[in-house]
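Q&A log
Question type: sequence-to-structure
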Amino acid sequence: MNTYTAQFDDIPGTRVFTAKRAKQGYELNKFCMSLMKAENRERFKAGERTYLDEWPMSEEQKQAVLARDYNAMLDLGGNIYFLAKVFATDGLSYLQAVSTMTGMSVEDYQQMMLSGGRSPEGWRSIKDGN
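Response status: OK
Response body:
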C-alpha cells in the first residue's frame, strides 16, 4: 500500500489521505469536527488560541489553523472534509477556501473550473520537473 500511494507524492499539489496522514492529523481533524456544534464555534471564535490549546495537536498544526493555511493543514494530516468545518466557521464557501489554496482569486478559480479545470501541463512530476 505504501509503495502504491508513494507514487502520488510526486504529483505537485496532490495529498493522498493515507493511514499515516490520518494518524498524524487525528487530533487536528477531531478539533475540526468539534466545530459542528454552535457552542464550540462560538468558543473558538471568542478565543482561537485558547480553544486550540484544549486539543493535543502539534504546535505546527495549531499555527496552521491560526494562519488558515489549509495547504499546511493538509500536509499535517488534515482531511479536506474536516477542514471544511474551519472555513465554514469563518463564513467561507468551499469555492472561497479552495481558491486560497491555489493562490487564485475566487473569480479566476471559478472560471478555471468552469473551463474544465487546471491544465495538467506542469503538474505531472516533481522529480521530472514537469
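Response note: The mean pLDDT is 88.
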